[in-house]
Amino acid sequence: MCGRYTLHTSPERLAERFDVAVPESFELRYNCSPGQELPVITGDEPDRLQFFTWGLTPSWADEKQGLINARAETVREKRSFADAYESRRCLVPADGFYEWTDLGDGKAPYRVAFEDDRPFAMAGLWERWEPPTQQLGLDSFGDSDDSDDPEPLETFTVLTTEPNDLVSKLHHRMAVVLEPDEEAQWLHGDSDAVAELLDPYPADEFDYFRVSDRVNSPTNDDPELIEPVDA
Q1: For residue 202, which of 173, 167, 230 has the smallest C-alpha distance?
Q2: DSSP symbols for 164-216
Q3: Residues in a beta bridge with 175
Q4: Residue 102 has pLDDT above 60, yes or no
Q5: Can the keyword Lyase be found in this entry's annotation (predicted)?
Q6: Which residues are catalytic?
Q7: Beta carbons of 126 and 154 less than 8 angstroms apart
Q8: What are the tens digits of pLDDT across the range 127-145?
Q9: Is 184 left (phi over 0), alpha (psi -120 to 50) or beta?
Q10: 56, β-bridge pairs
Q11: SS3 call for 81
């Protein structure tokens, strides 16, 4: 699975790398976690970063679901993801991701990133979910206020696949990392053709190292989290 990642690349570099407008509200992130609003690039608006909640809720759901990952092998078959796979694909900018591996006396976190720490895009899907309208009591008629209606929730999930040779030392799954020249195809390509993009990224440009256990808590989000620590 992919349950945490980093995006500490500067706004200027992100804008250049993905050819997008980066809003002033963008902040460097060292511990992107499920449930948080995080940057994505959609096929609908590929020229700007938008902020969606990590944890997909299908448009037809009765309640929030928070699906943080979708398996590449079955994404087209699962009702929760099939519609989004056909028409609502997105890029999830990142510059590293965390994996936990069992050392025998507990699990330890490791950061996986390109050796030069460059940003990349993970393959994602997004949805817009309308919360169910609440039933009003009889005494509420005449006092309704449209401003009280719940806002639509825009959410995303990250696709995972088999690990490459490096990540397999840490975990049995990894995020689908796209080549730069695959990103536009992922956003706009035919659903049959983009299935070929969902393979493990080659291991030779990646590196990994152990990081502080502080990353275990989503409340910690600072530069020290991406610093190597002694094993």
Answers
A1: 167
A2: -TTGGGT-S-EE-EEPGGGHHHHHHS-HHHHGGG-SPPPGGGEEEEE--GGGG
A3: 160
A4: yes
A5: yes
A6: 2, 99
A7: yes
A8: 999 988 765 555 555 555 5
A9: alpha
A10: 67
A11: helix
Query: 95 φ, ψ to 5°?
Result: -135, 15
Number of H helices, E strands in the chain: 4, 13
Which two three-digit tokens encode residue 161? 């696949």
In contact, 122 and 200? CB cutoff 8 Å: no
Amino acid at 175: A
Q: What are the strands, taking DSSP E only, across 11-66?
A: 29-32, 37-42, 50-54
Alpha-carbon distance 156 to 131, whole Å?
16
- For 166-186, how does the pLDDT look when each residue is reduced to its tens digit (9 = 90+)? 999 999 999 999 999 999 999
Other beta carbons within 10 Å of 218: 13
Question: In Å, how far from its chain's centre is CA 142?
Answer: 43
Q: Half-sphere exposure of 66 toward its Cβ, with a 13 Å CA cutoff?
A: 7
Q: For residues 164 and 30, give the distance between their C-alpha atoms in angstroms, rounded to a whole number.
A: 23
Is the full-model pTM beyond 0.70? yes
